Amino acid sequence: MSEDATGDRGVKLPRRPVVTVAALYGAGGSMVGPRVAERLGVEFLDRAIPASVARRMGLPEAAVASYDEQPRSRMGRLVESLARVPNPSGDESAERLDLDEDRMQAEIEEFLARASASGGVVLGRGGAVVLGSVPGALHVLLTGPREARVEQAMEIEDIDRETAEQRLEANDRARREYVRGRYGVDGDDPSLYHLVIDGLIATASRMRMQHAERHARS
Asked: Which pLDDT value is given to residue 201?
């Protein structure tokens, strides 16, 4: 099949695989996403998004990256990060705060739409909704029991149980509120995804990688 292949109905397909990964806190999305991209030979788009959006909007990349994180209020983070990031042009950061959340989100969604033409793996950002109409795209939800996700978060982030539990509550709540508020859908709705997977596969994957690395060094 050529790179410009079309489906049975004449719909143009992406040239390379497109995968979106939604993950509850502690389900290992930050580990699974890059490895899926590596296996498929496509880009993990996570870091490219703030850089592209910052260029298009004329904002410091650090400010956009801060906005793009969860779980705190996104516009609140943008305001705070703009205040912290030096502006080389000498303009006051406050003068640029007329940029609203809708424009920022529109830029992120536009980036994802453009990038999907060349393939890639997207973590979070409502990717299953934003790229829901992309032919051939695979949408995955990583989930798992609360206690298991707390345990995995403690291991991945090297934090204590109380911190992991607090982060789980905050991140899960913010993720759900974001998807519901932005797109009017339940981000945990299985019908949005082709695969709903227990995120503890991330632990197994990491253990396999560590074993392979130790074997390669021996």
From this structure: 62
Q: In the prediction, which pLDDT does 96 show?
A: 46
CA 69 – CA 216 distance, rounded (Å): 35
pLDDT in tens, 102-113: 788 888 889 898
136 with 13: CB under 8 angstroms? yes
Q: With contact defined as beta carbons under 8 Å apart, do 14 and 135 qualify?
A: yes
Domains annotated on the chain, with CATH: 16-43+119-218 (3.40.50.300), 46-117 (no CATH)
What pTM does this model have? 0.72
Contact between 34 and 208 (Cβ < 8 Å): no
| Residue 123 and residue 19 in contact, taking contact as beta carbons nearer than 8 Å | no
Residue appearing with tokens 């995120």: 199
Closest among 33, 18, 17, 31 to 123, alpha carbons compared:
33
